[in-house]
Batch of 3 targets.
Target 1
Amino acid sequence: MQSTAPNTSPTARSALPVARIVVGATALATLMTAAACGRPVEAPADLILTGGDVLTLGPRGVVEALAVRGDRVVAAGTSQEVGRLAGPGTRVVELAGRTVLPGLTDNHYHGIGGGPGVDLSGARSLGDIIDGIAAAARETPAGEVIVTNSDWHEGQLTEQRLPYRDDLDRAAPEHPVVVVRGGHQYVLNSAALAHWRIDESTPEVPGGRIGRDPAGRLNGELVDRAKDLVTVPPRPIPDPATLLDDLADEHARLNARGLTAIRYPGGSAGQYRALERLREQGRLNLRVNYLLRGPRAGAVEALSEALATWPAMGGGDEWLRLGGVKLGVDGGFEGGLMRDPYEEPWGEGGTFHGLQTVPTDDYIATVRELHRQGWRVATHAVGDAAIDLVLAGYEAANSDAPIAGQRWVIEHGFIPRDDQFPRMRDLGLAVTAQHHLYVAAPSLVEYWGADRAAWTTPVRAYLDAGIPVSLGSDSPVVPWDPWSVLHHFTTRGTISAGVHGPSQRITREEALRAMTQGYAHLTFEAADKGTLEVGRLADLVVTSEHYLDCADPCLETMQVDMTVVGGRVVYER
């Protein structure tokens, strides 16, 4: 059972400057009068937030105050109305005009980033990357493999390009180097290519790409299935206690930015069981919806082996629930499967349309088998041709037995087309949108051209077409901070390339609803989450500035003053 003990971390003990515990004389008098008159006395609230703007996102709209008892909202209204629930043990937080929002969520969160390997998150130029790898080489015996972590993107670099083979040779000529870029690409130096015996005669890998320069020489890139040519040294596995501590620390960092729920899109059964242990210990400080990762090969035979080891679909509770299976059909930025070819030189004379990472027949057979066994399916699809393939698979499953109402998912959905929207609606699909363009705009312009880049993740079009959308990050591919997500979709601003696709901006209220109600719809929790109506779970965040009224780009740097999950304060600034 989830503990309701107060958070005793140093951060949590630091109270808000204007927060105080009060016993209102008027409230006590009201309680005493009611008791004397024989009227039922409602139990006092545990927490009252008063004197600000509470964005309930429910029928009452914006109210002054909110009361929480246990893990639920018990009142929302004027400060006077809500103040009647104050009692001797009630904590009353004076908002002083700040806003209270439903708890924020991330619909596609792999991890916080960082981890073992050369950390490139602070790199801002190719020189920084070369220096970081060179420093690691000085501490690593010659011949040993050097691997970076994936917590970076070339969009953060002054040069706006990847480090290629020759760049990496300058950094570490005597060490095989593997630069991990996102979840779909490696870049190798010459020593690494030689180490794994990859050269110009190596045949292309189905569903993958071996990068070459204009002269045909390998440039070090291995995209999607071509990564299988390399066996990266395994990361050290922490002992079970350390793993749980690391997870709890990671979740505390998410709480500090207002996150109260996350969805893991394709992990292992082992990680799910670690989260179960964290919940059993009362240390799960945010709510988790978990998708298992489908077999990478995409074959039904591999699926049968995996199903034998998985927990039951839908198992769990309001803190941790198994939400389905994630599959994939195409690559990422550099391999999204498109109807039209990539821009040159990436388009290779109009012949390169991206990467299909699993054969069509295998994908459709897997989807149908998962449906037959009662699993809900979510599929990674970046390009419009990839979305075509997902729709074909989902329609095949739907012909076996209807999937409408089960909220199957298209993950990412970068480049939808008008002819696809009616098919999505007919199947009752949901789309999980993330702010990849915020970081990757320069790369996407190079790969796909300005028009397709500007259309990337068109949330305005999805909403106008009646497609349910939620918001998230795809961390660590893109920074996990929910405020940069909200900033991007309300402005279409990017880190280094200005505004792209201004016609696809959505309002701040629409963005907040997508990140709260949209997530609750996605995870079948709309009766409990997504708004701050009476009876809903008390998952909420207090912001330092007014969410609706502060001037752009205030969302990008918004400070969180308090985060509450299930009525329990899990973070205070």
Note: The two ends are 27 Å apart (CA to CA).
Target 2
Amino acid sequence: MTFKSDIEIAQATNMQHIRDVAKSAEIDEKYLEQYGNHKAKIDYSFLTDNAGKPDGKLILVTAINPTPAGEGKTTTTVGLSDALRKIGKKSFVALREPSLGPVFGVKGGAAGGGYAQVVPMEDINLHFTGDFHALGAANNLLAAMLDNHIHQGNELGIDVRRITWKRAVDMNDRQLRFITNGLGGKANGVPREDGFDIVVASEVMAVLCLSKDIDDLKARLGRMIVAYTRDDRPILASDLNAQGAMAALLKDALKPNLVQTLEGTPALIHGGPFANIAHGCNSVTATKMALKLGDYAVTEAGFGADLGAEKFLNIKCRVANLKPDAVVIVATVRALKHHGGVARADLGTPDTAALDRGLPNLLRHVENITKHFGLPAVVAINRFPTDAVEELQLIEDRCRALGVNVALSEVWGKGGEGGEALAKEVVRLCEGESKLEYAYDLEDTIEEKLDAIVKKVYHGSGVALTPAAKKQAEQLAALGFGNLPICMAKTQYSFSDDPALICAPDGFTVTVRGLKVAAGAGFIVALTGDIMTMPGLPKVPSAEKIDVDSSGKIQGLF
């Protein structure tokens, strides 16, 4: 049997004109800014004009810790929204924009897969509407203004050894992690060490995704810390008078992007902070628009529930006053067997013993969502043809013992039709009560918050701060940042800070090697393990397989 690739399926789709998609979603054309026939931006005034309209139900899609076997979280998110429409519900899906780094690297894009995709997938995975270019430009404008201030006399007394702001590019380029610039004489600036982050790790990205309107955007941009003086005084972007020009570059990027699924379900795709570096959720603006436009708004959080969902709940929900009505936890039999120690080549072979060894990873995420955060949940098993009946039954039995139902999802091969059972369970959950309990109080100390995340969410024995991190925690508290939420920068592959500790380890200690404040975004970033803000390309990058023919048709994207 021959399977079509994702891009072949997407390119064979007869897409609706974006005006018709907007009309079906009851979006007045006055809010629509078209980018060709199949993409548009929705003006942020839509939210102001519709402030009195009731919100729909919010559904968060998360997953187990990712594995090389794949889980299909975005595919499930898209397919669930299509399935809700299939059973007669008005749904809307809100996703993150893909970064070019993973697209050309190893992970791939973020437009879903099979028959549960958002289109035009080539545009979404590449330049789209230019949001990331605008974010990179705003980031680098601030960097240029900072270095220009130093070159022109350094009136603010900036310590060039304590500049925290980096330049950014949306590409995996390890050569740029550490650089020396300003060489070549006095006319070329002040020589200093510098470096690049990938755009999705820039604080400007997090600020855009957490801003409620353009005034909030400007205020947050102005609060960003770019450097310190010799006497430990933080230098803000507003000290350089940079926030206005940055906001001017971002005024269109702040508007969510409207596209469609393969089945014509309206989709908002906006913002894309990495979940193992930043908070890993699409923009507050897009989520709130989806809640106004649909009776059910389906959104996702990056990587496993220990990263994306934890940050969605502890950071985004706090900032935006949101609360999920139901949570979907995505898993596959193959991925759980990987957590059980099975080699990738053998994942298609039925093995209930290995599955049983790997199931604690899923069950821990289920318990976290239902018991610690207090939210109703369903497990969606992204079904593969090699899954044995007894394997599926084992997962169902173990989840039911925790009071959570399991729904098989076949949206990759069947689209919305393959997700109807999941959609019905989600609707049932949304009719019940939902209460969100945060993992920590904002009034807790920085160390207490870190300890709460490690113990309650990761199930470790506690947190250990290096001497440098302890000093940074004291300095941040003294500067008035002690009451901010925590954004953990941690490996996505494990509950711990060691990617080799898969499944459900316990008794481990998470070491925080550094703390830095993202004052504009409004959280403190805790650096663990060897997490980097500028990834590198693999030995054989996906870019080697991508091409375009003489007619302009892209090939090999997926």
Note: The mean pLDDT is 95.
Target 3
Amino acid sequence: MENFVVSARKYRPITFDTVVGQGSITNTLKNAIRNNTLAQAFLFCGPRGVGKTTCARIMAKTINCLNPTENMEACNECESCRAFNNNASFNIYELDAASNNSVEDIRSLVDQVRIPPQIGQYKVYIIDEVHMLSAAAFNAFLKTLEEPPAYAKFILATTEKHKIIPTILSRCQIFDFKRITVDDIAKHLAYVAQSEGVNAEPEALNIIAQKADGALRDALSIFDQMVSFSGKNITYKDVIDNLNVLDYDYYFQIVDHILQGRTSDILLILNDIISKGFEPQHFVSGMGNHLRSLMVCKDPSTVQLLEVSEQLRQRYLTQSQACPMPFLIRALEINNKCDIDYRAANNKRLHLEIALLKMCALCSQALNMPAAQAQPVQMPQNRPVQQPTPQSTLPQASQPKPQPQPQPASQQPPVQQTPQPSVQQPVSQPQPQPVVRPRGTTSSISINKAMQQAEQKAEEKEEAWDSPFTQEQLAASWTDFVSRYKNISPNFAAALGKYTPRLMEGSEIHFSVDNLLFERDTEGVTALKHHLKNSLHNNQFKLMPEVMERPAEIEAYTDKDKFEKMVEEHPFLRTMQTELKLEGDL
């Protein structure tokens, strides 16, 4: 039975030109050999499986070659090259510092340095995992490393450069090897598959390259594993089944359902994923990568950041056109918070389901529509003018919107009687730019720009509603919203309910708030606008918030504020808190 040689050894590069993904380093080394400007010591550092030891061996072989080529590659024909290929060269020594890390080992190496080479020009010492040397061994190595004989060259390789003492670093030329890109690994795997007579799908090789995380050796090991699993035909399905990789098609389906507001389908897909044995946190990580890929596809200049196959890239480009940028940013924030809090959650599945439902509700709010009637973002929306009803004042994901009722001609806005340019004119007018709050008593508050853009796009697809309303109607609608929204966000509702809004000329609604809570709660702002639009049957109003100067006496809202006010009247409470060591929210 013939001995099997793993692909990582069988297809190990033997020349500088065959090294994968490290072109800048190999060109520098070849130029140094060509110009005869070789340093006495080199330090090759970087992640595992990126070619550090391989480049060290190629360099040792090349500088000892008796007849190098014009491209500064070894000839593989001279006596030195043949000895190297047969692992019989006496000019090249490899030392594993992980198992030879004592002072005695380094002293033995120093003694060998004194003997000149028998064949070739240089004696090369390759010390792998050099960071494993002890501090005493490093100190014993300093003098020889700094002033070795002219024929001695040292090549140190490590994955943890930060563990090497500065005195060693200062005596070496440092080359930082980078992680190999997914495209380079996939191309090399295709070459290996062709050489071995293996028929491999490009998508399958791309998944293997992503799983390797920049290490070519790991990719070749996974490739050998897949050949053992599926024989001479490697398919995408075989790879995801064998490597426990979640199919990216799940993420495309979930995002489509989020855009369309199909919460039931989202929960069913999540149940299917979990039933197949995938860890929910693994899904959260993959969902974050998927949303990030959609975000980089929004700009043609960042599409190159996608490390996927060309077919999959087209799918990302197509779906990214249906996703507004504000939605992607907020969805990434929700997904990231879900990932951070996942381990601390008691009901992990519910924790993940809530995050997905938040994304679904977020998309509906960005479109200024209830989630139950949310349509795909890429589809045009031609919604008729709707009669406001009490049930439709707040966007509810679980309740459908009532059908619009016909309105008397005396009350209906003159949309049909006005030419088309005049109808679109109020919508296309630019909104007043938010002003940075000065140090005075009042100022305008800047609303989240991303949410404004999403709302503006949604409003451009609606017909203009311009029914007149009175101060009394505005106050009643405002009070109704505060009472309804109290259960959703008590702080936001309390901030709006403290002052009465004022109707000004031009359908401007001026109202006051005590702090910047209104600026941060973009979801509440969207709900408020939706409620006023439906209850007042007017979408041409403008919200003009003003921050009031805080009075000297600040009203206590939280338990801590209430406790501090009680301490002002009864100082002994502070002594009681200290003696009893009361902590918590106080």
Note: The chain is about 50% helix and 10% strand.
